[in-house]
Amino acid sequence: MIITIKPAKTNFYLNLKELWYYRELFYVFAWRDIKVRYKQTLLGISWAIFQPLVSMIIFTVFFGNIAKISSGEMPYPLFVYSGLVFWVFFSSAFSQASNSLVANGNIIQKIYFPKIILPLSAIVTASVDLLINIILLLLMSSIFRFVPSVLSLLIIPFGYLISVLSAAGLGLFFSALYIKYRDVRHATPFFIQMLMFLSPVIYGASFVTEKYRLLLAINPMAGVIESVRTVIGGSATIDGVFLGLSFLSSLAIFVIGLCFFNATEKYFADVV
């Protein structure tokens, strides 16, 4: 059987049929990344909760106790951890997806497969950490006697969708940039750090004036963090407009990243 590979007529495409055909390769890459992440580690899977827990302690000391940033009725440790859970997932998924093509350059040069599999499979590894931290967040909320509403069962998957779209879009865009411009990777930590302070992780969205609140919602993680924090606090009311704008923003980021990735994919094997 002869298979002819032809370029698509447009950059705005996602060949789901081809991705399904290569689904086993996707599983292989994802499982390999998970095993490499925890193989020969001292604390094993405990590393998944180490970063958000340590960050929670540091932020509580400096921003909760010293700077006295208001957390409303929630204890500040729970307040900041509810923001860190999805933020750590987003930053980790974005970083791993961005570096996925360069890290697998030898494979890209040898065989054909849809290259989009690499950044997307990298997000699966971060998803395992997210699941662990969500469980810990629910346990922490029960310790502080904050019982999440049933709405949280819907907000968490929706927040995951927005986070995945955002991380995948940025990961696709930056991974394609890394192939040609290797020094771009040095700017990623600064970019992630800047985004964190533009997200309501250590402060609430109410801290921002109404004039800039909608501008804050352009950051897709802002809507996720604020909505998850709201339901963890026991409230059944979320800001639908705020969350909706964040979803649209994440969708736009994914489309832009996908189009840029598709437009540059044909050069990957030559310059990696």
Give a quick precis of the structure.
Helices cover 71% and strands 0% of the residues. By secondary structure, the protein is mainly α.
Q: What does this protein structure show overall?
A:
The chain is mostly helical. It has one domain. The protein is 71% helix and 0% strand. α4 runs parallel beside α7.
Q: How are helices and strands ordered from N to C?
A: HHHHHHHHHHHH
**Contiguous runs where pLDDT drops below 50 for at least 5 residues:** none
Give the proportion of residues in helices: over 70%
Largest sheet: none
Separation of the first and last Cα atoms: 30 Å
Q: DSSP strand (E) fraction?
A: under 5%
The domain count comes to 1
- Number-wise, the strands total 0
The Rg value, from CA coordinates, equals: 20 Å
Count of helical stretches? 12
- Structural class comes to mainly alpha
Task: Please write out the topology.
Blueprint (H helix, E strand, L loop, with lengths): L15 H6 L1 H16 L8 H20 L9 H28 L1 H6 L6 H27 L8 H29 L7 H10 L12 H8 L2 H13 L7 H25 L3 H4 L1
Descriptive terms for the model:
272 residues, mainly alpha
